[in-house]
Specification:
- The structure is a single chain.
- The strands form six sheets. Strands 4, 5, 6, 7, 8, 11, 12, 13, 14, 15 and 16 form an eleven-stranded mixed sheet that branches.
- The longest helix has 16 residues.
- It contains twelve helices and 23 strands.
- By secondary structure, it is of the alpha+beta class.
- Helix 1 packs across helix 4.
- A hairpin with a 5-residue loop joins strand 15 and strand 16.
- The protein starts with a strand and ends in a 14-residue tail after the last strand.
- Helix content is 26%, strand content 21%.
- Belongs to the phenylalanyl-tRNA synthetase beta subunit family. Type 2 subfamily.
- One of its GO terms (molecular function) is magnesium ion binding.
- This is Phenylalanine--tRNA ligase beta subunit.
- It is found in: Cytoplasm.
- It is an enzyme of class 6 (ligase).
Length: 488
């Protein structure tokens, strides 16, 4: 669950109301959030690093708020404020629109990108007004998205650029590292991509992303019509097109290995910060031209319709609300709703900010949040059941007791082990047919599910050679074997 740090004074100013810590905590809880901690920048630095390094840090009160992992629209001050204001019926639902320019900016995709990062989406925010707080929130949202849905930039990498410093059409290509040379963000000299990888190998934040492209023969790069490098995703942007407080027009590009998530990320950034455009809640569309000639238009900013059946909602949640109440509850969760009494349903318009709405059950959850979980009447289950232990577990417990009575010590070993543990170290060939293998093991120690208990016992003995003899060990547990007769 991601945590966002928001300055209390900025939050209250945007909400138009001053709360006590307890009152704001209650508001968060009623919306399905949690005020995790009330702190300050100075306290955080002192706790995470040292008190000496906290000198000069701000004493402004900061709210650390836990956000559900699928609510990307709440990862910044702008989205959180809009959601809470709509929830309190203090603000109308914003409607996001796409502007189609007569000559839209183009991004030309080269065929080499298929080798490493095949997708790109793009859009423009026109006539934006930034101040220091908005700028900081803009940068922080990108970081939050990178760590969350972007999976540390492996699925999507975001690039934001001052459009007035560059010239379209833009080219998205993948070139050998030696052929990419530019002045990276906050660097003072021009370096090749290979040199930058060496420079950033010790960088506190960027070193974790290098492995995404480091072993590739080509690196992705975006350039403008004059050959100026905008970014080398997913590592670093160019210094030339950097965003500043004076930036008015922002070109946003997201390169990706997952096109769906790239669209979600682009929609989220546009919806959150289009409120600062002179033409509020609008974004300008760009054309992405692929090597086969296919042309895709982004952003999509799609609205879609879902229907909610009154009887189902009341049955699932254990409430008895009419259509108007359900519609009001959904509208307070930023889901514009209308009632169709003849069909006994509520038609819900899902905005581009709510990519977490996948199924009708997600709408039921929002009804429950708006209604208030504490307001749902408590009832006894309509059926009664008697719990009992499974026979296999009962037998296992009896065996454990008897062996322990004999003076043996029970050990608990991992259910995953290495291939060598179940083959080479037991002097037997690896059984490819009945052994369950992990497709993407994090370490060599956890490659397969154990096929026997002896391996774990022997590893325990090996790790406890200094213990006095005799070692009387046992384990009663499960092993995993594939059913070779199932044909799967």
């Amino acid at each position: 669950m991601p945590t966002v740090n928001i300055k209390r004074d900025l939050l209250f100013e945007a909400l138009g109301t001053t709360y006590t810590d307890e009152e704001f905590d209650n508001l968060c809880i009623s919306y399905g959030l949690e005020l995790d901690e009330v702190t300050s920048e100075k306290q955080m630095v002192s706790k995470e690093q040292s008190e000496s390094k906290s000198e000069g840090a701000s004493d402004d009160t900061i709210y650390r708020i836990d956000i559900p992992a699928n609510r990307y629209d709440l990862l910044c001050l702008e989205g959180l404020v809009d959601a809470l204001l709509v929830f309190q019926n203090k603000m109308e639902l914003p409607h996001y629109k796409v502007i189609q320019s007569k000559k839209p900016l183009k991004v030309l995709v080269k065929s080499n990108t298929k080798q490493i990062r095949p997708y790109v989406v793009a859009a423009v925010l026109r006539d934006v007004t930034f101040d220091s707080a908005r700028y900081a929130s803009f940068i922080d949202l990108q970081d939050k998205l990178h760590q969350n849905i972007c999976r540390k930039r492996s699925l999507v990498a975001i690039g934001t650029h001052d459009l007035d410093t560059i010239q379209g059409p833009f080219t998205y290509d993948a070139l050998p590292p030696e052929d990419i040379k530019f002045k990276a963000l906050n660097q003072t000299e021009v370096h090749s991509a290979a040199k930058l990888m060496d420079i950033y190998s010790t960088h506190a934040q960027l070193k974790q992303y290098l492995s995404i492209i480091k072993d590739s023969s080509v690196y992705p790069v975006i350039t403008d019509s004059n050959g100026i490098v905008l970014s080398m995703p997913p590592i670093i942007n160019g210094h030339h097109s950097r965003i500043t407080l004076e930036t008015k027009n922002i070109f946003i590009e997201c390169t990706a290995t997952d096109l769906k998530k790239a669209n979600i990320v682009l929609d989220t950034i546009l919806c959150m910060f289009s409120k600062y455009c002179s033409n509020k809640y609008t974004a300008e569309r760009c054309e992405v031209v692929y090597p086969d000639g296919a042309v895709k238009l982004y952003p999509e900013l799609k609205y879609r319709k879902e229907t909610v059946n009154r009887k189902k909602v009341n049955s699932y949640l254990g409430i008895s609300e009419n259509l108007d109440s359900l519609s009001s509850a959904l509208s307070s969760m930023c889901l514009k709703s209308t009632v169709l009494k003849e069909s006994d349903v509520v038609v819900v318009e899902v905005p581009p900010t709510r990519h977490d709405i996948i199924h009708a059950c997600d709408l039921y959850e929002d009804v429950a949040i708006a209604y208030g979980y504490n307001n749902i009447p408590k009832t006894l289950p309509k059926t009664t059941t008697v719990g009992s232990q499974l026979p296999i577990n009962s037998l296992s417990d009896k065996i454990r007791n008897e062996i322990a009575y004999c003076g043996f010590n029970e050990v608990l070993t991992f259910s995953l082990c290495s291939k060598d543990d179940v083959s080479t170290k037991l002097r037997k060939p690896f059984d490819t047919q009945s052994t369950v293998r992990i497709s993407n093991p994090k370490t060599l120690e956890f490659q397969v599910a154990r096929t026997n208990i002896l391996s774990g016992l022997l590893k325990t003995v090996s790790a406890n050679k200094k213990m006095p003899l005799p070692m009387k060990l046992f384990e009663v547990t499960d092993v995993v074997l594939k059913d070779v007769t199932s044909g799967k």
